[in-house]
């Protein structure tokens, strides 16, 4: 099995904007990780942002903090590094954190810091898909397992 790129926060790494993780989502993911099938990556940290950091949301092509600071360059740098890693490692599948301005693959926060999610993609999910990498969110573990021929 080729490795799968996974948002580091989904494997319990404290890299989210608030310095926390999402925790390991399932025993199935834990087993895949233990077998070396998962390659954790945080595009925001790789792009140069600190942990913790101010929350950020997409507004069109820009990513901004609630204070209005434009952090788009860091998000795009992280996305480019994620793509380079996928290309170098032959990765064709990514499992990314839904809602994130980097990793959201179907829904992201509205850009108004109102807690509302809207249809959209984060910078990393968008770039990976443009380059033929199949992107799943943690809400699609069953679909990912089916694609891999395993069960959660």
Descriptive notes:
- The protein has one domain (4-148).
- The chain has 152 residues and is α/β, with parallel strands linked by helices.
- The longest helix is centred in the middle third of the chain and has 18 residues, at 72-89.
- The protein has helices spanning 27-34, 43-46, 72-89, 123-130, 141-148, and strands at 4-7, 38-41, 56-59, 62-65, 93-96, 107-109, 117-119, 134-137.
- It has a four-stranded parallel sheet, with helices on both faces. Strands 3-4 form a two-stranded antiparallel ribbon.
- Pfam families: 2-thiour_desulf (PF04463).
- This is DUF523 domain-containing protein.
- InterPro entries: 2-thiour_desulf.
State the order of secondary-structure elements, H for helix, E for strand.
Answer: EHEHEEHEEEHEH
> What is the topology, as strand order, of the major beta sheet?
2-1-5-8
Shape: globular
Structural class from helices and strands? alpha/beta
- Binned, the helix content reads 25-40%
User: In percent, how much strand structure appears in the residues?
Assistant: 15-25%
Domains, number: 1
Overall pLDDT: 94
The overall strand count is: 8
Spans of at least 5 consecutive residues whose pLDDT stays below 50 are none
State the distance separating the first and last CA atoms.
16 Å
Question: Sheet bearing the most strands, described?
Answer: 4 strands, parallel
Q: Please state the CA-atom Rg, rounded to the nearest Å.
A: 15 Å
H/I helix tally? 5
State the gist of this model.
With 152 residues, this protein is α/β, with parallel strands linked by helices. The protein has helices at 27-34, 43-46, 72-89, 123-130, 141-148; strands at residues 4-7, 38-41, 56-59, 62-65, 93-96, 107-109, 117-119, 134-137.
């Amino acid at each position: 099995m080729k490795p799968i790129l996974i948002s580091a926060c989904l494997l319990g790494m404290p890299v989210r904007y608030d310095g926390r993780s999402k925790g390991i989502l399932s025993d199935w993911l834990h087993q895949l990780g233990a077998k070396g099938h998962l390659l954790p990556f945080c595009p925001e940290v790789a792009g140069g942002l600190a942990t913790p950091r101010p929350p950020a949301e997409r507004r069109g092509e820009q990513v901004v903090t609630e204070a209005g600071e434009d952090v788009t360059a860091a998000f795009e740098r992280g996305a480019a590094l994620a793509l380079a890693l996928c290309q170098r490692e032959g990765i064709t599948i990514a499992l990314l954190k839904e809602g994130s301005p980097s990793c959201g693959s179907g829904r992201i926060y509205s850009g108004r810091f109102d807690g509302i999610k809207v249809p959209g993609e984060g910078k990393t999910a968008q770039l990976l898909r443009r380059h033929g990498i199949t992107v799943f969110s943690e809400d699609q573990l069953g679909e990912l397992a089916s694609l891999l021929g395993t069960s959660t």
